[in-house]
Amino acid sequence: MELEFTTDEVLNFLRSCLQFLLQNLSTAFGILLVFGIAFIKAFPSAFSDAFKRTFAKDDGTLLNNNLKKADLSKMDVIKLKINGKCFEASVETLKRFDSFFSRMVESDLSHDIDEDGYIVIEHDATHFEKILDYMCTGEILIIMD
């Protein structure tokens, strides 16, 4: 038995479904929630893979969206985590030169800190130790081989 429907019949059916969904939106969201939870429980690896694709950085670590806020004006020592490498510097050292760090410390904005109290900065840390030494001493140490 083959069913045949005209375009108008299909459109009327779709309009009726849409009206029903709009009138019963909370019920529809409840149904979607139940199906979503059932999907996650039935296919945990698929959900895990989708979650990682959405919330993972290029190196495979997960993005941390649970950062706390810090008011730097009340700190004497600032802890920085630059591309995963940890540094500590006094507020005076970071304010010594007109730079990103002096503006960061002097700003009245709060900054995100991780669970260990470090301000996370996603930049290359290769030369930061030398830059921090210069900010602290005002001198550049050049080692000749």
From TrEMBL:
The superkingdom listed in its UniProt entry is Eukaryota
Where's the BTB domain? 76-144
Which GO biological process entries does UniProt record here?
Answer: protein homooligomerization
Q: Where are the transmembrane segments?
A: 20-43
The answer to whether UniProt assigns keyword Transmembrane helix to this entry is: yes
Listed PROSITE patterns: BTB
The record's annotation in InterPro entries points to: BACURD1-3, BTB/POZ_dom, SKP1/BTB/POZ_sf, T1-type_BTB
The keyword Plastid is assigned to this record: no
Alphabetic keyword roster: Membrane, Transmembrane, Transmembrane helix
Protein name as it appears in the record:
BTB domain-containing protein
Lineage of the species this protein comes from:
Eukaryota, Metazoa, Ecdysozoa, Nematoda, Chromadorea
